[in-house]
Design goal:
With 216 residues, the chain is mainly α. The protein has ten helices and no strands. The protein starts with a helix and ends with a helix.
Length: 216
């Protein structure tokens, strides 16, 4: 059955409930949990997407189109999440990380890299600045998979604070600047939209350079 555009859009922007539960249970390894989930969900979507593209177009054209699409999604989702103010901070950051991870898999696919290769989620973590080396990242992913969803000591509020800190690192160095604006729901929508778009575009440029050897 062919998925509708709206179904694909929801899959791109909405963090699955099971993943959200993992992130809150084990915030210290939130990046690893998210990268593994992205490989399961986004890699097949990326493979299907590139298979549907016109073969005559240059890979960079498809990659830049993927970046533009995900920047738009990041802006729109950030604006919507900002309506909740501080209460949606962690979920907003998780949604942004989810969108950004999808973009990286799509960029890799555009340049002919198999999005289902086990090194793709490791490379995602390197591009996000969580690890310096893909092989170290892969080892971290393998360790996470063996003890997935292990709860940390502390109450839920403490875990959410730690989760927020880990997600800030994933989605971009300037993401933390939005925290002050998050206290004011209306203003947060503007801050989120602009910041989400900027950080996603920057990651897209790094992904294009990494997989295609060209700038965005």
């Amino acid at each position: 059955m062919v998925e509708s555009a709206e179904t694909r859009s929801r899959q791109a922007r909405d963090v699955p409930k099971w993943l959200w539960e993992q992130l809150r249970a084990d915030p210290a390894r939130a990046p690893e949990h998210l990268a593994l989930a992205a490989a399961d969900v986004h890699a097949p979507a990326a493979a299907s997407w590139i298979a549907e593209r016109h073969a005559g177009r240059a890979p960079g054209t498809h990659a830049r189109a993927a970046v533009r699409r995900h920047v738009h999604l990041a802006r729109a989702t950030g604006a919507a999440m900002g309506l909740g103010g501080w209460t949606t901070m962690a979920l907003d950051l998780a949604s942004l990380a989810w969108i950004q991870s999808r973009m990286v898999f799509f960029v890799a696919a555009a340049f002919g890299w198999d999005p289902r290769d086990p090194m793709r989620p490791a490379e995602l973590l390197v591009l996000q600045g969580v690890y310096d080396d893909p092989y170290a990242a892969r080892a971290g992913l393998d360790g996470t998979g063996q003890t997935i969803a292990a709860a940390v000591v502390g109450n839920l509020g403490e875990r959410d604070e730690k989760l927020t800190a880990r997600l800030v690192r994933m989605v971009g160095g300037h993401a933390g600047q939005r925290i002050g604006g998050k206290v004011i729901p209306g203003f947060a929508s503007i801050v989120n939209s602009v910041s989400n778009g900027r950080e996603t575009k920057a990651l897209g440029r790094r992904a294009i350079a990494f997989y295609g050897g060209e700038s965005a």
